[in-house]
Amino acid sequence: MIKTEKILHLKSCRGRKVRVVREHYLREQVPCFSSLCQADCDNADGKVLPGDLTHYVVPDVGVVVDYLEILEFRELQGVVFTQTACQAVQHSKGRRQYNRLRNLLKDPRHDCVLFANEFQEYSYCPREKGESQEKWQTRCVYSAAVWYYNHLAGMMDVVMITEDQDAVAQYSSLNSGVYVISVQDYLQDFWSQVQAAHELYSSISQALQEKESEGTEREFTEHLPAEVLEAGIKSGRYIQGTLNVSKHQHSEASIMTEGLSNKNKDLSWGVLVCGGKNRNRAVHGDVVVVELLPKSEWRGKDTALTEAQGEEKSGEEADSKPMPTGRVVGILQRNWRDFVVTFPPREGPQPQSRNSQRILAVPWDRRIPKIRISTQQADALQDHRVVVRIDSWESTSQYPNGHSVRVLGRAGELETEVQTILIENCIHVPPFSDAQLREMPVNSPERPWRMDPAQVAERRDLRESHLVFSIDPRGCEDVDDTLSVRSLTGGELELGVHIADVTHFVPEGSLTDLEARSRATTYYLADRRYDMLPAVLSADLCSLLGGVDRYAMSVLWELDAQTLEVRNVWYGRTLIRSSYQLHYELAQALLNAEQAEVPELAGLGSEEKDAKLAELTQALEMLTHVARHLRAQRDRGGALELEGVEVRAQLDEERNITALVPRLPLEVHETVAECMIYANHWVARKIQEAFPHQALLRRHPPPRQEFFSQLVDSAAARGFTIDTRTNKALAESLDRALDPQDPLVNRLLRIMATTAMSQALYFSTGLQSQDQYYHYGLALDRYTHFTSPIRRYADIVVHRLLTAAISMDTRADPGRALANNKELEELAHHINTKNWASQRAQKLSTELFQCLYFKERDPESDPRCVADAVIYAIRDNGVLVFVSEYGVKGPVYLRNREGQVVAAGRDGRCEWQSGSVRRHADHITTVSSCGTSTFTLFDHITIRISVRSTSCHADSLNLEVISNKPHRSAEPQQPSSQGRCQLVQEVVRLAEEASQQAQEKAARRPKLSREEREFSQSKTPNLYSLLEEIRELALLDLDMAAHVCATTA
């Protein structure tokens, strides 16, 4: 080891330049991470480059800084990143880009390594006097390339790529076997078939050229230096936070300041930033520093309705009182991600520059400013969705500069819009690679999968002793969980929850595990799903299907038969065979003592069938009894019964939407949910007690009280008092807020309470004090996710923790070391981010299909476009309504842009007339020549639904009031006789028979289709025709409905 010195020129916290001399140690042995190494380098702790390549490639500093996206292509193999280049990225591009490079180096799917050239004795180059930093960095990288060639004894050619033509001229002929060429020449000579890389190179090069030709006139003020921002934040002069641009008022943004809200009551609502100038080049999601304006310039939020409004935190738009207002003075961390933009139709001649055209592309997300793109394909890309990345936003430019990455397709096409939703939420789900699929066990007719005898010997066998069954949505393929309940010889009850043992098939650190960790969850969209695990696991070997042997992780409770108190609890790995694969409707029918066909009993004799059906029904009744007790326990602790807006798109075989079906609640839903909550709670207790500083739990922080303002005010307008001090008080208040004339009132109040809630979070127990573990919504002191490892990576982590905890109890070898607190917290943050992205994508997908449902219908003539709506919020120029039939929330304008207002006639019909509108706390009035019309909270009105289409953004629903009276089909239906119940039962029976025939037919097919094997995606669902048929029949007269039923039969 050789000691030398490294001289650094740094800035102090006060901005003064400081010369720092540091010790620098050089070593002869530094890992090269090449399989061709003959010098016995210590390459065990990282990826190793293969030896069967034609060359290794070493990118220059400028290439890594500007063209990292090209180096991320998996086709480019044998990439050696130097320490010099990585440090340059860290200093010039910031933490986000540096972390991106680090993740690339860690990812085993990418064939690249990091070489610590500045610590290698023979590749280190001290900076010479008067040498520029750029020249020194290029010399360091070239020296590293030469060292690699010599170290491998000339067995592998080395190509250094650079954009510095002087470096090409200087170094290209110095050493044989070490070639120095430009990036463009490298792509053309070695990767001519990777067209996407060539297009990306062209796009980035054009963007860099345009950046050099920027003007000098300032459009924005310069950001303050980092040291000034840091000192200002510490002194309290400046405020740090994440910029959140309003979804509805795009000129408004806010910065939430949770840390300062306790010190300064004025900041409890955050800081408002109005207008683009005050935003000062910050985009949605940036971590910014703001300076408060004088109080005389403080403003309130705009409370007028805007397009596509309908989802906001309760209370955020409650009033327009002045609030702290500021301006952005610096940006600490950019949130520049992949953005989807649309190239709008161009009018007139366009200026051209260097054979390219500069286009202002319009982002799909309305909160993002237009992005200036230089492209040679401006005409061809009109009305297309394109993925772009922002490169820079200088103070001399009104808009940010960026480059295009790839084209998604024409705007408005279904696949294009679905891919847009995924990209906008940073969801990347490529097909599983061949290397990942090679890790999977085989299960085919020729080679059926069988249990390992060693596993059979180690696990507790429940196949003969327990009646195990699953209850899932109809057509479910990824069956995570099964249940069992039985009476023990001592009089106790035994409740069992059995979860798929995914960790047996997915070892930690495997390629499948890394991909599952990256995805973090299965993404469910309206017409498809993207699995976290390959289909051979998610839909077959890990799915607890009926009648097959499977590995499971089980929790078994011995309960007192009378009090249902826990006498004992057992955790462990088991063998199970599910006897029945029930769907919710079938299980509920059995509980209701209705006639129902269980497919597994279809081929049995009458006596045996009746006996087994009685056994299954008794188990379901016992399970329901236990679940009611568990729910009552949580209710006494303050558990909340919240309400969401859940609607699903019914699709035909060609994936065309035929109906929007709201989810119908059944008691069996609650029964299964209570058992899963119980298992999650007990597993949380187990792993937290075993690993108090490194267990993955899930907490639900109490919501901020100000977010309840809309709920409290709306309930008061109806005469109800809502107490929000604790979850128990809130639950009891909501239970009392019942309107016997309109059950939708209570449902809307619960929806408002749900909207006011904070997000539940995964966290590491080492980061929070124990009083922060509490789950507000479920009223549990500890909670985690254990019951869905097929579709949630958090559950896989918890399974591994539980296995380690069980090993500690038995003093067995726990195996691989567990993640420490810091690593677990980073993983928890990643999973939280992906879960929120999944929720947003699912919501946007539902909205997309809601628009598709109405887009092909004429709103003037189609009766399905007319619906009943309930007013749940008042705004300056209209109201927000909820359409329960379709699960739609949105704005209804009472004043249009021309200044006209809605006037209601004596029969309730509405039309536009000149007049005025006045807002009150619980109602809004319009005054016109027809008189005064009043719209009050919780009033039912009739609306017409149409689609508002734009080429650059997502389509949205347009809700227009046509009558201030309820829609006729929305009146409460009181069954006058048993006819309607018999009708529904008949429809259910016919549908079940058809479903059983379809299942028998499907059972004769291969378990996995070619599409499922190749892309690991589910088949197109078609699950809701029954609910749609019931809904349509319910709208008919009773006599007509009976006639239809008889005809169908």
From TrEMBL:
CDD domains: PIN_Rrp44-like (cd09862)
GO CC terms of this entry: cytoplasmic exosome (RNase complex)
Biased composition (Basic and acidic residues): 301-320
Domain of life: Eukaryota
Keywords: Cytoplasm, Exonuclease, Exosome, Hydrolase, Magnesium, Nuclease, RNA-binding
Listed EC numbers: 3.1.13.1
Gene Ontology MF terms in the entry: enzyme binding; exoribonuclease II activity; RNA binding
Family note: Belongs to the RNR ribonuclease family.
Protein name, UniProt field: DIS3-like exonuclease 1
Source species: Perca flavescens (American yellow perch)
